[in-house]
Amino acid sequence: MRALAATLAVGAALAGCTNKEPAENRPVPSSSAANAGTAAPSDTSRASGEASGRESTAAAGSAGAVDAAVDEQPSIVYYEIFVRSFADSDGDGIGDLNGIAGKLDYLQKLGVEGIWLTPINPSPSYHGYDVTDYYGVNPEFGTMDDFKKLLAEAHGRGMKVIMDLVVNHTSSQHPWFVDSASGKDAKRRDWYLWAEDQGLSTAAASAQGGVAWHEKNGGHYEATFWDGMPDLNFDNPEVREEMKKIGRFWLGQGVDGFRLDAAKHVYEDFKSQAGDKEVAKKNQLWWQEFRQGLNEANPNAYLVGEVWSSSAAVAPYLNGAFDSSFNFDVSDWIRGAVVSGRASSMTAMLPRYYALFAKESGGRFVDAPFANNHDRDRLMSLVQGDANKAKLAASMLLTLPGNPFLYYGEEIGLRGSGADERKREPMLWTAAAGGEGETSWEPLVANRGREASVEEQIDDPNSLFNHYRKFIELRKKEPALRDGALESMPTASQAIAAYVRTTGKEKLYVAHNLTGEALTAKVDERSAAAFSEILFATGEGASYEDGNVAIPPYGTVILR
To answer: What residue spans carry the Low complexity bias annotation (predicted)?
Structure first.
């Protein structure tokens, strides 16, 4: 990928034009149970999991043709599975690894090419983000043999498997912490942060705004998210080596990479450290060291980080560390657009983000856009059950660059908002309750009406499921949608979001109507000659004539 000429000024510009981590949206948990530089490696294939590397090509022409090197991002579609909720194979009501293996044909029909498993390690909490054994499999989910079987079955279908790795903190029940808390002379005392040992005040607020220091056996340990998740001390070389060893262990079992939870909080423990450049640099250096440590086992391992912050703050993590970082700005944009019916300036900002990311990564990054995950209210609840808006959100996500991440159940319209458990309710496989594979660890509340199920949607050509499937299929067939760069396209209406996806060899014009009324977008004269016909459209009444694109309500039109 190229770094645009404007890149040098982008960092400062983005710092003022992107959303900081809003208090109401902070992920309390992906990592919380509040209710209970070096150079980047030379290989370019790991980011998408595909064999093909990234191209950087040049072409002359206008807005349809590329007038500089093309920022391609080879990509695949990933699917996040909250393991406990997805599929139960043994009738105990808890989702498990064999249950996932039994649903791989379903995922293959949907079209996904990679899956992300939320934590599978032993944990005392339902969500698993407080680990008690980094080398084991939660017995509620199965065994290591079951995990290896899942890997083999997925790989046999051409699917990648990445797993959540919770590096920032452990469970307070982890043997390391139990030992650390036993006294100042404990073997692993310095594996965690103790205020008294380091002469620190216990008055500081945590990075999440709550209590940072928690009392135990006469001392106070630091825990960013809650007292059940004590933070590890990454200034201790033994901790760093152990975490690299853990990563290599799972790569050795055959996993294809990791989703790295709470990545910026390895060193950003306190609210006063937000925006601190020295702290940010220490985070970057650790994750570069982690990447180098994994290269011994698999230099192509895919690393995607959870850095819930501005794009300017995310960019350094892409320098020799992560292949991708989840794009929370894109998530906010999609969610806001389908609710408000207004496009905002995101499509104009994305090329600037990508230029910054390209500069930091040496052109090796791949974006990780998403619309929803296990920490956010589900889309169908956000749009109050409007299937057309849910389809529009899918259309937007699946026509953007990078590795799009889908959240389980979004493809059938599961609902859920408020408490975290509501966002993670059981997957509905059948129209009637108690069908094969359905979990029951948590009673249905948001989905008690069973408005959505795989059984009802999988053969309905107009269903939300098949809307997702068609867009994923189109994305696979069209290199510009799968791997291409993005150029913003101006429109006269804030109710239309438009952009061009382009490789060195082809280009596609994409326009989304964010309203319930038919609208027309005017392709600017400089670009109109590059597009001659409709490649794909949703809804009735789409047309393209004399540079005018008629877009159906909540519809998408793609020109070639």
So the answer is: 47-65
